[in-house]
Amino acid sequence: MDTPYLLVDISIAVAQYHRIAAAFPGTPVYYAVKANPEPTLLIELVRAGCHFDVASRNEIGLALAAGADPVTLSFGNTIKKAEDIAYAYAQGVRLFAFDSLGELEKLAVHAPGSAVVCRVLASSKGARWPLSRKFGCAPEMALDLIRWAAANGLDPAGVCFHVGSQQLDPGRWEPSIADAAALFARLAADGINLRLLNCGGGFPVDYQTEVASIDKYAKAIDAAVASHFPARPALMIEPGRYIAAPAGVLHTEVVLVSRKSYADEPRWVYLDVGRFGGLAETEDEAIQYRLSTPHDGAPTAPVVLAGPTCDSVDILYQNAGYELPLALRPGDLVRIHGTGAYTATYASVGFNGFPPLRTVLDRADRADRRAAG
Amino acid sequence: MDTPYLLVDISIAVAQYHRIAAAFPGTPVYYAVKANPEPTLLIELVRAGCHFDVASRNEIGLALAAGADPVTLSFGNTIKKAEDIAYAYAQGVRLFAFDSLGELEKLAVHAPGSAVVCRVLASSKGARWPLSRKFGCAPEMALDLIRWAAANGLDPAGVCFHVGSQQLDPGRWEPSIADAAALFARLAADGINLRLLNCGGGFPVDYQTEVASIDKYAKAIDAAVASHFPARPALMIEPGRYIAAPAGVLHTEVVLVSRKSYADEPRWVYLDVGRFGGLAETEDEAIQYRLSTPHDGAPTAPVVLAGPTCDSVDILYQNAGYELPLALRPGDLVRIHGTGAYTATYASVGFNGFPPLRTVLDRADRADRRAAG
Q1: What is the H or E stretch that residue A106 is in?
Q2: According to the 3-state scheme, what is the secondary structure of B254-300?
Q3: Phi (first) and psi of residue B76, to 5 degrees
Q4: CA torsion sign, B149 to B30 to B37 to A278?
């Protein structure tokens, strides 16, 4: 098959869903559709009982097309056009996130009576793909916004936060849970009784090295909730990477192996996929995928790994210490593991004339699909 | 019209082509198709007498579909699959760039007898979108590669280099021209007579501030060639940004204006286009576009400017000192100027469910097209 393509094994994603759902008993799992919106994956997650975190009008459409009940959708993006809020509401979505007065004003008009959840700024220290201050507001402002929501025909349900994607420290949720508990307490004094704590995503997967088990994360969150809340609120979580990443293997071909000079420099290995073809999370070498080649086990040496476009920022790894076999040659297949999340939909429509990354379902999934179709 | 969209005025791009062609009399201009492969633009550039620098099989197809003669194409990407070289050769392309033995070996088999041009490493100091060591080889290696090409049935035509895109220093071409002249001289001593000097692209456009005129660049290059070469070689240039950037205005809507806290922080302005929707060159705030709003002239204050996705790296400008009117509100149209190059094809296929950036041709162009159709 012509490379590059992303081979997705949906059964792995479904198993990951069951694993995280079991680690958080009684807590609904909202799959972050943005991680991988492959329709067959969404259908299987609906069957498994999953809920969905959606970022846009199109993601709502995809979830509903997969059979999701609109009341299992959370419109988690805090940056929504008025007409997209109205669309969501008309489709039956009743749970929305916000972090500003501007967004609440739109929600009050276009989603009256809906449950709204205030996103509070959180530290994402320890995350491989950290979050900036782009989302969330300071707790003092959250207080006023939630009061405004209550006074303007919305249902102030609770608080959400996000500790950053691929968060390697299970203890990182605790400070935000403490902040949320303080907000719950202060608002209860005003007669506003919040009930929902959305602990977001960030649950990591093994790329090159083993991460703590999902049970460790669940226990840390459970303990933090127990210690900071006098009465346990309803919880929800929003994993994306955790469910989808292990389900994908990106298949790519070596296009060229070269050196830049006769000095003792690393070889340059150019693949037929790069940062603009789906590997956007290699920006600043943030996500370091595991690679396999037909020569694994043979002697290796350092390489710079780059994509095929004429753009010089299209370099995957230069400083991360990657080594590949000396026997590697143009035409060799390289597998990039753990690429089921945040890859295919990031791909450019055609930068440098290279087509977007295709998704190919694993044979077993395709057989299921034919049987079901 | 629903935002976001890129409004392209093809007549501006054609005028830019004529401007640069006039500044470099007798030098063929190879438009870098990757900058903007809009079919109508390519048709008009063919009519104007433009040649084309292509990066991939698909870009070759686009140029040929626009009516380009294959002998006016240069396959300038130094990272090519063997089958794509064979495709280019079968289509009549006879000019190829390389910077490694691995690439020459493919060219010798799949494009025998073709003119090949060796890309030499150049400094891109002074460029807003600099090039890394990804492309090019050291001059000592170039010597051996060109000798290898001559001995293996290829036509070693010359040398190419690239000083980095949006290069603000007209003097930056001179060191590479000197390197090239030295290679010409050393190879002439071997009986290999190079004849072609490809000075690449990098010619800048006015984004926020005025850059030196294209005539200044042409004169600096002409003077450097005259001073380093005993006999003037054939020249070629490969502008992309210079031709396409001024032809585009990205139309986007304000989705949200917010603050993160009650501290005296900048406002956050969220647009319906961001880094994954076509503004990839705002990475590290490299390319700083000029913005206009319906409130221009009214009092302004500092802002952080961000895109609509749930990805926190989807921030356009945080440190570049952008100010926007205090009157700016959700729904306001913001025009991003000079966005005709390196935008629409960079856009993701659907990250976060947002559709790719559409290109809309200016009314006059559409009328021409109807008349021609």
Answers
A1: helix A101-110
A2: EEEEECCCCCCCCEEEEECCCCCCCCHHHHHHCCCCCEECCCCCCCE
A3: -85, -10
A4: positive
Q: Do B351 and A349 touch (CB under 8 A)?
A: no
Mutate to test the interface with B, among A101, A284, A312 (most CBs of B within 10 A): A312
pLDDT digits (tens, 9 = 90+) for B229-275: 999 999 999 999 999 999 999 999 999 999 999 987 899 999 999 99
| Tokens representing residue A329 in the block | 């040659």
Token pair in block for residue A234: 């309803």
Per the structure block, which two tokens stand in for B297?
């002239």
Instruction: Report the CATH superfamily, name and number, of domain A245-372.
Output: Lyase, Ornithine Decarboxylase; Chain A, domain 1 (2.40.37.10)
Distance (Å, rounded) from C-alpha A218 to C-alpha A25? 9
**Cα–Cα distance for residue pair B182/B198, rounded to 1 Å:** 15
Q: Please provide the DSSP assignment of A22-54 as one string.
A: HHSTT--BEEEGGG---HHHHHHHHHHT-EEEE
Give the right CATH number for B10-244 from 1.10.246.80, 3.40.50.1110, 3.20.20.10, 3.30.70.100.
3.20.20.10
CB A96 within 8 A of CB A77: no
> Nearest-CA neighbor of B206 among B237, B242, B171?
B242
Contacts of A34 in chain B (CB under 8 A): 309-310, 351-353
User: What is the residue-averaged pLDDT of chain A?
Assistant: 95
The token pair that represents B82 in the structure block = 């063997």
Residues 185-244 of B with CB under 8 A from A: none
> Within 10 Å of residue A2's Cβ, how many Cβ atoms?
11
- Residue of chain A whose alpha carbon sits nearest to that of B58: A353
Q: Which of A57, A129, A262 sits opposite B140 (nearest CB)?
A: A262
Whether A310 is catalytic is: yes
| pLDDT tens figures, B316-361 | 999 999 999 999 999 999 999 999 999 999 999 999 999 999 999 9
Token pair belonging to A157: 């349900």
Residue B29 and residue A39: Cα distance in Å, rounded? Answer: 46
Average pLDDT, rounded, for chain B: 95
Q: Please list every residue in chain A whose beta carbon sits closer than 8 Å to the beta carbon of residue B79.
A: 255-256, 270, 306, 308
Integer CA distances (angstroms), A86 to A53, A104, A108, A160, B270, in order: 17, 13, 11, 22, 19
Q: A244 and A7 in contact (C-beta within 8 Å)?
A: no
Q: What is the ipTM of this complex?
A: 0.94
| Domain residue extents for chain A | 10-244, 245-372
Q: Where are the beta strands (DSSP E) in chain B?
A: 5-8, 30-32, 51-54, 73-75, 95-98, 115-119, 127-129, 155-160, 165-167, 196-198, 234-236, 248-258, 267-271, 291-292, 300-306, 315-317, 323-325, 333-337, 358-361
Contact between residue A203 and residue A24 where contact means Cβ atoms under 8 Å apart: no
In tens, the pLDDT along A110-155 reads 999 999 999 999 876 777 776 678 999 999 999 999 999 999 999 9
Q: Which amino acid is at A245?
A: A
pLDDT tens-digit series, residues A32-83:
999 999 999 999 999 999 999 999 999 999 999 999 999 999 999 999 999 9
Quote the CA–CA distance of A249 and B77 in Å, as a whole number: 27
Residue A373's pLDDT is what? 40
Q: Do domains B10-244 and B245-372 have the same CATH topology?
A: no
